[in-house]
Every structure is written in structure tokens, then in C-alpha cells.
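pinned: reference chain
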Amino acid sequence: MSKSMKWKLPILIALALLLILAASVPALAQQQEAFATSSNSAHAAVAVSAASGGAYKSDAAAAQAAFNRAWTVFVSPRCQNCHPSGDAPLQGDDSHVHIQDVKRGATGKGVYGMKCSTCHQLTNLPGANMPPGNPNWHLPPADMKMVIQGETAGQFCRQLKDPAKNGHRSLAQIIEHVSSDALVGWGWNPGDGRTLPPLDRPEFVAAMKAWVDNGAACPQ
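pinned: its C-alpha cells
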């Protein structure tokens, strides 16, 4: 091999490597862009899933509409009266403060001699506006008040979804609670002289299920 050829060979190899590298740069850039797009989409999907309680696909408008329908039951006296903003239960269709000056107490079952069970028996007493009854009559406990009185639909919805405020219930457990809890069911059997909620219980449960099934988005 001539001396001139020996001198040119390294240069030719270097030029060939540069050409190969230059050709691969656009492809590498496209791969990086595709990876970034995929990663961002994955993060967005995780965010949607977390916000909707695990449901990947959601319909926020349908969920909000369903919760607003259920909200008409929550703010009825049959539900709101046991979810006051203060520590005294409410009474009557006008939701006035309990006239016997009853207080919630730590467990939601009253204090001292003024326990809920003193007047509220296992069943409703006969007669208009007589003390209603249920074996588990109580307010929510002091550390988990689940306030409805004075709240907006959105505020209560966010409270209802918060495990720190709802008794550490999942969305599925919330549906189970409104579907089968006997004290919740009392709202549709409140005794003489008390109005019923605007939806019957199956309609209310259906609205709550629709809220969850569509991603559990809260009204604004």
C-alpha cells in the first residue's frame, strides 16, 4: 500500500463514520419524541385513573349530573337532619335545631343522660311527628361529621370521596352503604308527619352508581 493511501485511509474511515452518525440522528430524535409522548400519555392516564377512583374512562359531565340528582336526597330533611354543621341534630321538615338541646358526643350517640337511645327506640313510635326509631340511631361521630347542612353539592361530594372524612370507605363501600344500611333506609320510612326524599331509594342508589361508574367527578 502506498504512503499516500495509508494517509488517506483513516480520513476515509472517519468520513464514513460521520455520514452514518448523521443519518442516524433524525431517527434517534424521532424515537425520543415518541417515547416522551408515550410517557406523557401514561402519566395523564394515571392522573385520570387516580382522580376518578380507578376508572380509566370517565364522563365528568355524566358523573356530575348523577351526583346532582342524588344531592336532592342528601339535602332533604330525612338525610340532612342527621348531618348538621354543628353538634346538635336537626328536627322536622324545616330542619330546626333539636329542641331538647341534644348534643352529638364523641361517638355520635349523645352525651351523659341525653343519649339518642333514651327517646329513639328500635322502631318509629306511632303518631304524627313522634320520635323516630332505629336500632342504630345516631349522628356521625365527632371525628367524622360528614356535614351536609350548609354545604354545596361539590363540597359534600369532595368530602364524601375523602377517605379521611368518610370513614375510610372506598367508592364501592359508599355504594354498599347507601344501598343496604338500615339507618339510611329509615329515610324512606320516617314515620307519620315527615316528608319523603324526592327520589325513592332505588332511584337514589342508581344515581350514586351512575356517579361512580362515570368516574365520580364532583360538581363545581
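why pinned: Strands lie at 90-91, 96-97, 110-111, 114-115. Confidence is low (pLDDT under 50) at residues 3-7, 12-56.
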